[in-house]
Amino acid sequence: MLTTQCPHLVLLPGLVNDSRLWQHQAAGLANIAHVSVGDLTKGHTIAEMASDILASAPAPQFALAGLSMGGYVALEIMRQAPERILALALLDTSARPDTPIALENRSAAIEQAESNYQSVIKELMPKQLHPIHMEDAELVGMITDMAMSLGNKTFIRQQRAIAGRIDSIPSLSLIKCPTLVLCGRDDAITPIGLHQEMVTAIEGSGLSIIDDCGHLSALEQPARVNEALAQWLAKITS
To answer: Whole-angstrom Cα distance, residue 228 to residue 139?
Structure first.
């Protein structure tokens, strides 16, 4: 049974994802945490998104988990208000800024989204999902619907915010709360090596690698992700 002693858990979505990204975690962890999903659709920078979450967070202190872009925001929150974070989970993300090639690709996607947004989302899908999940029409449809519901203006705003993010590597050693780093074994957008370097820099953190999984681990392998998050939350509730 959920009690008032259970921590608040704020979940941060990725690029043009809404609360449906975290639907399995919201349901699966509801008995051990007060779960809410943050809104990252308004800010024009990662710093603004972080400030928005801190202003709207349901409690003075809370556990924080971010996937992909949500991870970039979570790392910024750790810089802005580390005293408010009880525990941190970084899923399928990176502490590094964009490479020049990534910036070029992001710029091209922004330009394409102005005139043919649906094609951008279609081209992005195989980078987000493990090949076995590309065959799941319901899953692909839901991810597409999230992106189309938020629209190209949100996509462009978020892409520009991501492109302008700072290098988080220097601040990783300052993170002192219980930290979980998790990624899909076949994540094509943020590969395992990017997660290993975060674990090396964050004292006491642990790495969870999820098999048969790409970039959207919360949707691709929800049971395994929930198990890892439950063990992580137990560090602040036991």
So the answer is: 22
Return left, alpha or beta for 99; rule: phi > 0 is left, psi -120 to 50 is alpha, else beta: beta
* Angle, alpha carbons 211-216-222 (nearest 5°): 65
Condensed to tens digits (0 to 9), the pLDDT of residues 13-57 reads 999 999 999 999 999 999 999 999 999 999 999 999 999 999 999
C-beta separation of 58 from 125 below 8 A: no
Q: Which domain holds residue 46?
A: 1-238
Compute and round to an integer the Cα radius of gyration of the chain: 17
Element (H, E) at 144: helix 137-163
The domain tally of the chain equals 1
**Which pTM does this prediction carry?**
0.97
- What pairs with residue 180 in β-bridges? 89, 206
Token pair listed for 108? 């091209």
Structure tokens at 130: 């493990």
